[in-house]
Amino acid sequence: MGMTDLVLRSCNLYGPIPAYISEMENLNRLDLGFNKLEGNINTPDYENLQNVKYLYLTSNWLTGSVPEWMQSRDRDYPTDISYNNFSESSEPTTCRENLNLFESFSAQRNSSFGVCLRNFQCPEEVLVAYKLWWKTNHH
């Protein structure tokens, strides 16, 4: 069957995300958050990551533009790319409840996206799911 979950959170990883991770066909959850991963993920090498249901690239040094497939993922595919350094030109024009972009852009202080986040009301089912996930993964 192959690996379904790959969690390398806070492992002090650095450099680009290895392209072979995108080729892991059975991957359901990928968490590479809180490392020092860098580079542009808006390339063909990473397009297969769109098949990963739970994608967490939080708090790295990722740059370039946010891939279009991340911006248009189904609501059942949560994605967290907060605290990175993406180019402002790829900033979405609308909020999506399944895409966390907080402090993700190089010019965040001048960003209109902050207004969107302040006005965004998180649906109750998302809060319940997050609390359950947090309890399960943070003993």
Describe this structure in words.
The longest helix has 14 residues, at 124-137. A five-stranded parallel sheet has the order 1-3-5-7-8, with no helix packed on it. 18% of the residues lie in helices and 17% in strands. By secondary structure, it is of the alpha/beta class. It has a single domain, classed as Leucine-rich repeat, LRR (right-handed beta-alpha superhelix). It starts with a strand and ends with a helix.
Looking at this protein, list some descriptive labels.
single chain, 139 residues, alpha/beta, five-stranded parallel β-sheet, 3 helices, 18% helix, globular
What structural class do you assign from the helix and strand content?
alpha/beta
How would you characterize the largest beta sheet? 5 strands, parallel
Helix content: 10-25%
Number of strands: 8
Shape descriptor reads globular
N-end to C-end Cα span? 28 Å
Q: Report the C-alpha radius of gyration, rounded.
A: 15 Å
Which band does the percent of strand residues land in? 15-25%
Number of domains: 1
Low-confidence parts, pLDDT < 50 over ≥5 residues? 108-115
* Whole-number mean pLDDT: 81
Could you give the topology of this structure?
Elements: E1 5-7, E2 14-15, E3 29-31, E4 36-40, E5 54-56, E6 61-63, H1 68-71, E7 79-80, E8 99-100, H2 113-119, H3 124-137
What is the compact description of this entry?
The protein is an alpha/beta fold and 139 residues long. The chain has helices at residues 68-71, 113-119, 124-137; strands spanning 5-7, 14-15, 29-31, 36-40, 54-56, 61-63, 79-80, 99-100. It is built from three helices and eight strands.
